[in-house]
Specification:
Blueprint (H helix, E strand, L loop, with lengths): L1 H24 L3 E6 L6 H18 L6 E6 L4 H13 L6 E4 L3 H14 L2 E4 L14 E3 L4 H14 L5 E6 L2 H16 L6 E5 L7 H8 L5 E5 L2 H13 L6 E3 L6 H7 L5 E6 L7 H14 L7 H17 L7 H10 L2 E3 L2 E3 L11 E5 L11
Parallel strand pairs: 1-2, 1-3, 3-4, 4-5, 6-7, 6-8, 8-9, 9-10
Antiparallel strand pairs: 10-13, 11-12
Amino acid sequence: MKKLILVMLGLVLFFVGCDEKKNTSTKPVVAAILPLTGSASVWGKNAKNGIELAREHFDKDKQLKLIFFDSKSNAKDAVNALNKVISSKKKISVVIGDIASSSVLAMAPIANRHKVVLLSPGASNPDISKAGEYVFRNFQSDALEAVKDYDYVRKYGWKEVVTMYINNAYGKGLESVFVEKMKQDGLRPVARLAFEQDQKDFRVYIEKLKKMSYDIIYLAGYPVEMAILLKQMNELRYKPKILATQSFDDPQIKDIAGDVSNVVYSIPKPPDPSSDEVKKFVHGYKKKFRVNPGVTSDTGYDAFMIVYYIYNKYNFNAIDSDTIKEELKRMDIHGASGNYGFDKNGDVIKEFSFIGNFNAERLQIER
């Protein structure tokens, strides 16, 4: 009799264990493909922090399984990561990522072919608007940012412009829209100077600039490269007016470059700091990571929040990518990065502000 009871107890424990294992394995899986190393890693790490914080705030019971992949700041590794997601037996329907535009553009055809939703919290190249029906981003398009940047330059009457841009999808996207706006006004850049990702020496560029006559530089790059450029300008005691893109909004630039008083940069107009969503995010971020949120921290946070709400609506059952896609189109989002929805191209529309001053010449700061 004792043996029979022990056998039955063993069977009960076996089946309970199987049920627990089954429940764990059937949790919906969300993948995040982000540049956690390489020159774009500052944004990838910011987004990862935001995602992890959102998971703490919204998915306390861990209803969603979250897997991170490092795209290493290049398109090849981003594609390799996406192929791993697609070949996985976990049937992943949505991927948060990438941050780099070149990586998203490389992943987009694969995502569309296999019907996997991409939700990028950082890619901004204008071509992403046409990247396919399964590609979304809760980060503004360069087409919008570059237009606002040009409007700012035109407002102050600067017609002689040198463009400097990182030679990848991000930099080329911004620079091409800016130049197209110049052409519409019958203007041409004084020079168009492209530099490489991970470039360390800008002295040849600076010597060229010294020989030119112009009003302002329009600078579209990654934080590290821009910081090195400005550091070397300071060393050579050359301080032209510079209008930089949102990527300049990073504390490491001043740490590396030192004086950046000759730079004004554009950022999306900050959300209302008194809103409950923003206060919860900012307080939680500072408490958890001991730093202020950076670029893509809030959009990373919102990206996970958006995915969580969709799965919550379906009681955390497995849902296909078409369901997620249609839910995204209908969403009215009130998040850490503001209030917005997605347009027909999977884009969001945001207003812009300009931060900074040119040397001692104080300009009106638009908010």
